[in-house]
Amino acid sequence: MEFPILLIVIIALALIFDYINGFHDAANSIATIVSTKVLTPFQAVLWAALWNFAAFFLAAYVIGEFKIGNTIAKTVNENFITLEVIFSGLVAAIAWNLLTWWFGIPSSSSHTLIGGFLGAALMHAFMMDYHSVAAAQPELGFFDTLKHAFHQVTSQDVVKFNKVIPIFLFIFMAPIIGMIISIIITLIIVHLYKKSNPYKADKSFKRLQLASSALFSLGHGLNDAQKVMGIIGAALIYYHVEMLNDPIYVNLESGARFDYFAEHYLWVPLVSFLAIGLGTMSGGWKIIKTMGTKITKVTSLEGVSAETAGAITLFITDHFGIPVSTTHTITGSIIGVGLTKRVSAVRWGITVSLLWAWILTIPISAIVAGVTYLLVRFIS
């Protein structure tokens, strides 16, 4: 089977994004274990990358499905998905990811990808409606045509809100859940070890950090690699349904197509998990500094609490098939351990800056993707 060139480019770009996601989000998995000097940065990225890739086997052979990938593929109505839409969304996501990485801002790769996908699909729908209105009512002026097209887009169910609303809510819920769990874990550990020798306790926590960071890296791989798999899946499903008119895909219910794809294109999740692991090995030292030291000073005890809380949050959201940001999750968990000491232990100026980056990620990615889609249409 020969794939069209644009589909090959999309798969390549998606894996490049996955790789960038790995080094962009490396800080999520290793910032606390590096800042507490349990592992050197080099050892830490190797450790995190190993567990990022191990998440593939957990998803494929233990859980037996890729819920988050399925959710991502269904955030946009299938009628408004094209290869140009997916390409434009990926270009926007890569651009925003590289920009925030360069400035050391721990933004969400997940929401960047989702924002890009939504923005390109909405622009595609708008352009279709604009041409439809212009053809049907040629007497309308330019601005009246725009107005009618915009009104038409809002009534077309381009965005699947039953999938997107939980993703938006968990921009705020994931860090709050991580924060609450980390506070509870920290208070329990402090109570259990209050009579222990501080030196021996610290050695125990440093050993435990190897386990907690592995768990968080496992959750990171499980969550983030599936998002790229979902985008590639959307492209391949479009290829089979719209370009090949493949009777197997056409006759399947829309909801069953992704599961069929995952079963017959197992190399897609495999290379998605591999790419994010390789990206993690490349590290993201600018962001590690922000995550590991600037939000609050983290001890090995607090590192165990933050990483364990983050991992629990990621496993819960994976169970429900809700794509969340590992960046948001671990940030909330780190804030939680800071709050157990005192409110002033958290550097709120840094935290507020991160919050603005989180809020702006989806709309900025959507706008960039929309503009990219217009450029692609103009060139083609």
TrEMBL record:
It is found in: Membrane. Its main location: membrane. Pfam families: PHO4 (PF01384). Keywords: Membrane, Phosphate transport, Transmembrane, Transmembrane helix, Transport. One of its GO terms (cellular component) is membrane. The chain crosses the membrane at residues 46-64, 85-103, 167-193, 266-288, 354-376. The keyword Manganese does not apply. Coiled coil: none annotated. It is a multi-pass membrane protein. GO terms for biological process: phosphate ion transmembrane transport. InterPro entries: Phos_transporter (IPR001204). One of its GO terms (molecular function) is phosphate transmembrane transporter activity. Belongs to the inorganic phosphate transporter (PiT) (TC 2.A.20) family. PANTHER family: PHOSPHATE TRANSPORTER. This is Phosphate transporter. It comes from Chryseobacterium defluvii.
